Amino acid sequence: MNSLIWLHEDALRYDHPVFDKAGENSHTCYIWDADYLQSMDYGFKRLCFIYEAVCDLPVTIYSGNTVDVLGKLVSVKQATQLLVPTTPNPRLGSIITKLSEKMQVHTVEDIAFVKTKSNADIRRFFRYWNKTKKLAMQIDGKNA
Amino acid sequence: MTSDNNSGQSINRVKYKTQNMKILENQFENRLELVSYVSSLVNWLDDANPSPVIGNKQAAKDKLNAIEPKQYVRTRNFLDGKVTYLSPYIRHGMLTLNQVRNHALNKCESPEQIEKFIQELAWRDYWQRIYQSRPDYIWHDVEPYKTGYNATDYADDLPDDIARGETGVACIDQFIHTLLDTGYMHNHTRMYVAAYTVHWRRIKWQAGARWFLHHLLDADPASNNLSWQWVASTFSNKPYIFNLENVRKYAHDEINTGAADNQVLDASYETLTAQLFPNKTQ
Question: Has the ipTM of the complex gone over 0.90?
């Protein structure tokens, strides 16, 4: 299965679980989407930091509208699926939703800080901390 | 796994040209060249000064290897304390919280020695969980202000003097200049500047949060905005304030903490609470 991996600004590294999911026949890209970046209102220092991080990865950097570029890339690369690291960012989420209307998209979770079976109570930090502390204090956030 | 970042790139460039896809450069002789190239891509910005913080894997690895979790626990609130500077790398997924926690655990004899260090990582995890489950919290008041004021009593926009670091409050201006010059601030100075903005100047936390998001390398909407809400009291039980004595306790010699240059901060907590929140009932 040919996979296209879209690395976005929340997952700028090469050992994200998305690569395990992709297998051997994959192509990895980062999209420099000026409209998206302007919508995030990042300053030059941040943009430079992101670009520097991307250049350190063996990915191709494309310029353009993310949905358009990925649509074309899926076709050019004959990819059967698009793999994307999970992100809570609603702007990226909206792009992922648009992509899902055009192609098969799978989001892949990053390695968890703590492996909880159910959602912890997040109404206040210390409620969450009291529930997760025991695991959080251990290697890999889980019982040995 | 295949990549276009190899000798086949020129072939691919031709192929992609027919698809109207532009490939950007990713190889540079030095950082100056990279900075200049990025500058050419962002014509909507006036600024072209990079942060001294390097955005690559080696820099992240070096910072991770340099952490001193036990010293962090003792000194993190001091402006020259042993903080890690890992936040930009964590923010952009270059390091995971799991990786940092495991590395820290391997540097101590028992987990209890570094509980505060792990708890700070947990704050990031906590904010991300909220971002995922309640994205509506990010730009809206989670709860009313507990300052005796309504949200409508706060100004919408950040005043220019704060944006430029020209408030006339010496230590606050120094903290702001660090932000503008480096894209990084110690967590304690973020709290000071946020509290000054919201409580001394009565500006909506959203204006300050937007400003930090623009400048900080590590800011993400969850950690940044919800921390501003914590200071403002719209996501905490009371407003966070500080006084000059507190700054003096945690600052180093380069911070101007002279009373004459920081007059609005030079008072007891009781006096400041009465001045800043005259309508507050408890």
Answer: yes
